[in-house]
From TrEMBL:
Name assigned to this protein: Cupin domain protein
Keywords: DNA-binding
Organism: Methanococcus maripaludis (Methanococcus deltae)
Domain of life: Archaea
Gene3D superfamilies named in the record: Jelly Rolls, lambda repressor-like DNA-binding domains
One Pfam family matching this protein: HTH_19
Length: 202
């Protein structure tokens, strides 16, 4: 029993280390693009509508960069989001296929997992993700974020409460919502069960 616990603990530590390394790689690409473009941290923070301190944490790799923020950074530098995620130029311009479970993982916060479904396609007009939301155990409401543009969510599994502006909307499997992402929003899985939805950021 003790050896099984030790093995599981080692696997958790290795997973966290791998996630941290990937996060720092993405952060380094963002910083390099900003410096090559001769744009200050303050300018980028203002463009993303966040504080310079938070943006600096993103570039230092000490804080996960939300998928919506990566999307805006890619647009600012006129590069494809796939370049930020993998360091490789995207080449597909007619179509791209993403097999089940093979999308690039973007965000690794405790309650959210984003899987990019089109990172290899060049010059995208939108970014599609499968988002998995784990139920909270601390009893607190999820932290909100906002980003320019619009967003479409379609619930694939479970139930979700969407907090947006001053509203709370319950969404069940098969429901969908289209909203102005400039308003602060957050998602919460309900009934103590994992929820999953398709998100398209435009």
């Amino acid at each position: 029993m003790r050896s099984e616990i030790s093995f599981n603990l080692i696997m958790i530590i290795l997973t966290v280390q791998t996630m941290t390394e990937k996060m720092k790689e993405i952060a380094a690409r963002v910083r390099e693009l900003r410096e090559l473009s001769e744009i200050s941290i303050e300018e980028m923070a203002n463009h993303l509508q966040i504080s310079p301190e938070i943006y600096q944490h993103y570039e230092e790799g000490t804080c996960d960069i939300p998928a919506s923020v990566l999307y805006e950074i890619a647009h600012k530098f006129e590069v494809d989001m796939g370049l930020l995620l993998t360091g490789e130029e995207t080449r597909m311009h007619i179509f791209t296929v993403t097999r089940k479970g093979k999308g690039v993982s973007v965000e690794r916060r405790k309650q959210y997992k984003y899987e990019n479904l089109a990172e290899k396609f060049v010059h995208k007009k939108a970014e599609p993700f499968i988002v998995t939301v784990e139920p909270r155990t601390d009893g607190k409401k999820p932290s909100k974020n906002s980003h320019p543009g619009q967003e479409f969510n379609y619930i694939l599994e479970g139930s979700i409460k969407l907090y947006i502006h001053k509203n709370e909307v319950i969404l069940e499997e098969g429901d969908s919502i289209f909203f102005d992402a400039g308003y602060e929003h957050a998602m919460e899985a309900l009934n103590g069960k994992t929820a999953k939805f398709l998100a398209i950021i435009m």
